[in-house]
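Figure 2 data, in text form.
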Amino acid sequence: MARYTGPKGRVNRRLQTLIYETSGASKALEKRGNQPPGMHMKFRRPSNYGMALMEKQKIKHYYGLGERQLRRYFEKATRQKGNTGENLLLLCEQRLDNVIRRIGMAKTRSQARQGVAHGHFRVNGIKTDRPSYLLRAGDVISVRPRQNILKMYQGIREMGVEGEGCEWVTFDSESMSATVQGKPSGSDISLPVDANTVVEFLSR
């Protein structure tokens, strides 16, 4: 799932949510969002199991998670105080690739994951090539100081990428760096999903 390379428009239409943000995938949802992928297919009322499975797939596709990684986040969320479903999503929001997308340093989360994997970003001055790195308060994200890499990300910022914004992270356009001010809250979750249904599904 973390390396999904199939038709992204089909995923958007099947899950009825803008999961993948590429232009083709978003247009597919706009034009034929009321029709599932496949010839002569119609949406049917799913069972409770089907609904829970769809909600889980939303999280996996949106944040680029594999099944084992999602299970690890779930186990960590259950050990934390508060609502387990919200804790699960907040862990996903703290991922390095997600924050890079939300501050407008990448057009899509897939592009953010690729940039991190290629070593384009540093956390606290140390090269970090794990998109799943969980950020903490005080962490500073910076672009690798190479002219071509800096120019590329400056170009993305100047294009005015439509990002959701990230109130718990501040961005300095002069130094091309972002500082984590604290932890995200429930209002910072960017994916519309019924996390409690996913928790019940994973608890089976």
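Caption note: The chain has nine helices and five strands.
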